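Technical note accompanying the year-one report. For the benefit of new consortium partners, we illustrate the data format agreed upon in the data management plan: each record pairs a sequence with a C-alpha cell string. No post-processing was applied to the example shown here.
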Amino acid sequence: MKKFSWRGLSITIFIVVTAFFLAPLAIPNLPSWWAKHKLKLGLDLQGGMQILLEVDSSGLSAEDARNAVEQNTKIIRERIDRFGVAEPSIQKLGESRIMVQLPGVRDYEAAENLIKKTAMLEFKVVAQPTEAQQVLEKIDSSITANLVKFPALAAIDKMDKEILGTLEEDAEAAEDAEEEEPLISDTKGVFASLIRQGEYDLQVQYEDVELMQDLLADSLFQTLVPAGWQVSLERPETRGSREDRKIHVLSSAVELSGSDLAKAKVEYGSATSSDPRIANKPYISIEMKREGARKFERVTADNVGKRLAIVLDSEVYSAPNIQERIAGGRAQITGSFTTSEATELSIVLNTGNLIAPIKPVSTSIIGASLGIDSIKSGTKAGLIGLALVMIFVVIYYKLSGLFTDLTLIFNIGFIIAMLTAFGGTLTLPGIAGIILTIGMAVDANVLIFERIREELDTGKTPRSALDSGYARAAITIWDSNLTTLIAAAVLFQFGTGPVRGFAVTLAIGIIGSMFCALVFMRSIFEAYLSSPDKKTISI
C-alpha cells in the first residue's frame, strides 16, 4: 500500500485552488457563482475618479476637531461600501484632508454628491403664511438699509430703478407690469422682488435661484434673518431642470434630527396610489428610534393643520401638511426622485451625519484608456522580465532550470488567484510586486541548486545530494523570506493605497515562492529521480 503523502495533497490543493480562481479570467460563460470571482483592477488600471477633500473643523472644539477627519473617513467609507464601489481607497492626508479613490466608478456626479453630502437631517415646522410674509418683509427692509453690503443685489436694484423709470413714463405699461409680477408686499425692496407668489407657495424664478442660494449661504444675510426663523429653498422637482424653486420660511427650532432616525429605505409607490407624490415613483421610507417616535408624535399633535418640513443639508425635500397626530414614528421623504437619487439619499441617511462639513479641493477623472495603456505596459514589463529570467535559468541550470520555470509560472498564477480569492485589487505597484517576486522566487531555487552542486562535488548520489541540499538551503530560504515578509507587513500596516497594493502582492508572492521552491520543486525532483536508472541530475 502506498504511503499517504501530505506533500502530494498540498500540491494538489495548490494547483486546484489556483486553477479555480484563474478560470474566470480565461473561460467565458461559467456559472454565476463561479464567474463572480474575478480579479479587481485598481484606479490606475481600470479608470475611475479621485477626490481630494478638505474637512472644515473650524466650528468644533479642539477635541472634536482632532477626531473629525477620522470619523468622517469612517462615514465616507461606509457610504462608498453601500454605493457598491469595489476596493475604494480612502485615506487621511495631513491633519485635515481625505483622499478618496474610486476605481471603476462611472456615475461621477452621484459618487461625488454621496461623499460630500453632510446629511444633516432635520424636521422643522413651516411658518404660517402671515408669519412668513412678516419675516420676509423684515429681511427685505434690513437688506434695503444695508444694500451696499450686497453688491449683487445693489446691481439688480439699480437696474430695476432704471426699468421703473422708463415704465413710469407710460402709466399703462406700469399697470401691466404690476399685474404680471405680484410681489409678497406692496412696499418692496430688491430682496422682495426675487420672491413671487406661486399657486400654493412662494417661489423664486429660475433666473434668480443661484443668487438666492448665494444669499442664503451668506453669513451677513443670516444676521438679518429675525431670531427664531430661517429661510430655505426647496429641492427642485427634477435635478438640472430650468424650473422655479419654492422658498420656505421655517422655524429654526429642530423638532427632530438625524440622530432620531433608526433606518431609511427606498420604496416604490403603487401605480394606483391616490398620492401623486409617490404614485409609481420611488420614495424614502424612514423609521424613528423609540425616543424619536415619541418626539414625532408630540410634534404632529401640537402642529395639526401646519406643515412639517423635512430638511436635509439646509434644503427642504418635502413639506407635507400635518392632518392628524401621527404615532409609530414612520414618515416619508417624497419628491421626483430617480431610483439612483433615492438610493443615494437612503445611504447618507443610514450612515449618519458627517462630523464636520467637507468640501472638494480637487476632483480627477481617470479615463479607461489610461488604464488600458497601464495594463499593456505592466503586462509587457512582466512578460519581458519573466522571459529573461526563464531563459537565464534554463541556460545556467539546464533541466533543473526548466523545472524552475514550471514552478515560476505556477507561482505567478497563484498570486493572481489569491488576489482574486481574497477580493484584492491589482494595481501598477502590485504588478511591480509580482515582477519583484519573480526574481525572489528564482533566488530561492538558486540557493537550493548551488547547495545540491556542492553535495554532488563531494561524491554523493543525486538523491542524497538532493536531500542534503534542501536541508542546508531551507534555513537560509526561511530566514531571507521571513524578513522580507515582515517588511511587507510593515508596508501594509503603515503605507497608503499604492504602497499597500505593492505589499499585498509581495507577501502573496513570497508565500507562493517558498511553497514552490521547498515543496513543489522538491516533489518534481523526487519524481524525476524515482527511476533507478537516473544516476545524475542535470544541474
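Partners are asked to follow this layout when depositing records. Residues 179-186 have pLDDT under 50 and may be disordered.
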